[in-house]
Amino acid sequence: MASYGLYTHIQSNKRRSIALIVGLFFLVYVMTYAGALLAEALTGYDAPIELLLRRAWIDLLYAAPWATLGTVLWIAIAYKFHQAMIDAVTGGREVTRQEQPRLYNLLENLCISRGIPMPRLKIIEEDALNAFATGLNEKQYSITVTSGLLSQLNDAEVESVLGHELTHIRNGDVRMLVIAVVIAGVLSFFAELVFRLVFQTGFSWRRSDRSSRSESKGGGGGVAIAIVIALVLIAVAWLLSIVIRFSLSRKREFLADAGSVELTKNPDAMIGALRKIEGRGELPGANSAVMEMCLDNPREGFSNIFDTHPSVETRVHALVEFAGGHDPGPLALPELELEEEPRDDQAALSGGESADPTSTPTGAGKPFLPSQPPVQIGGAAPPTSEPGPWGPHGRG
Questions:
Q1: Rounded to a whole number, what is the largest CA-CA distance in the chain?
Q2: Distance CA 56, CA 39 (A)
Q3: Strand 142-146 to 120-124 pairing
């Protein structure tokens, strides 16, 4: 089977992704150690910092199996229910060939051309222009697009979007990202829990710390130092988990764009799709985890560190440079309400200038045949010296 994009780049991306996932698991243990250190510090015993660090390490050894089990359980729950949760958030619904023949046929042709199992198709009834793929195995894989994307993109552009999402599925990006989001969710949940606990019990801790210091002069303030270290570790682990998640999202987009071009042999369609989607992909009600999976995420972070996707400008530049595409620049799209021209009888009833059925509506294209003066029934044909589209009108 042909590779999607450059094979060496895909393999390198997979190795980096696995390393990042391992890094997320390591952050789980860092967070567990920080929690153990915080628990030792909040016992009220003003021990030296060395003793508290040693006790926290022993607690980590006891808690590590439970932390691993909890993380695996969390992943198992996501494995079973993540698609239902995403559909509940976005309002996506599965469609059949009878409901969406255009979309279904485009995806089926791509899958048949490369021998790829057909994922499920889902649609979100939103004017936003976006798409994403989800699933952890072949039975769960699905591609979701918005109704706005279908109405604004032509067939070649929709095909390029489907090829982009198929590449994500084939390269294992979807599975990696779901796992990363789940593990990062564990870290975020624990970090928020700890900070709420500290801030809610902060005043009682300060009082106990002051009383313990006044009772024993040789304590050395180990509790305060341990709490600061624990909070720093928790904050750093939480921030690194976010950076890893976003790094996974950014790296995969370039390869998915290249994979789409390889599937469709049409870099201009991928560029056109990106330009139309640019800045129009915000899904109302979708959380950050869902937006990370989308073709484009308009939400931006501080100094691009927390951006989940490279900019459309950067992606288009890569397609122009390496795939030979042509960039039309930012595109302005017509409003959906203006897509259908009013009929002549409606224009006449609404106060139009003319209700003549022979008149040409404003904005309509030029007629194929040249205009001719009206012919009276029973009368002679008007003389003309101009040839028609198939030669002179007059007889020799």
A1: 125
A2: 8
A3: parallel
- Tokens in use for 78? 């996501």
Pairwise CA distance, residues 288 & 23, whole Å = 21
Q: Are the CB atoms for 128 and 282 separated by under 8 Å?
A: yes
Tell me the whole-structure pTM to 2 decimals.
0.70
Residues with active-site annotation:
165
| Residue 229 Cα distances to 24, 124, 306, angstroms | 20, 46, 25
DSSP for 335-380, please give it. Answer: PGGGSSPPPHHHHHHTT-S---TTSPPTTPPPPSSPP-----TTSP
With H, G, I as helix, E, B as strand and everything else as coil, classify residue 113. helix
Q: Is 36 within 8 Å of 147 (Cβ atoms)?
A: no
pLDDT digits (tens, 9 = 90+) for 25-68: 888 899 889 988 888 887 756 678 888 889 899 999 999 899 88
Order of all β-strands in the sheet with 120-124: 93-94, 120-124, 142-146, 131-134
Q: What amino acid occupies position 276?
A: K
Tell me which amino acid residue 67 is: A
Rounded distance between C-alpha atoms, residue 26 and residue 68, angstroms: 10
CA 325 to chain centre: 23
The length of the chain is 396
Strand ranges, E, within 128-279: 131-134, 142-146
Q: Measure the CA dihedral 32/33/39/43, to 10°.
A: 160
Q: Which helix H or strand E contains 134, and what residues bound it?
A: strand 131-134
Angle formed by the axes of helices 202-215 and 173-200, to 10°?
A: 60
User: Which of the residues in the chain have pLDDT under 70?
Assistant: 1-14, 16-17, 44-46, 198-221, 247-251, 300-308, 335-396
Alpha-carbon distance 319 to 271, whole Å? 7
Q: Report d(CA 370, CA 360) in Å as an integer.
A: 13
Terminus-to-terminus CA distance in the chain, angstroms?
66
The dihedral built from the CA positions of residue 151, 155, 161 and 166, taken in this order, carries a sign that is positive
Structure tokens at 152: 């604004």
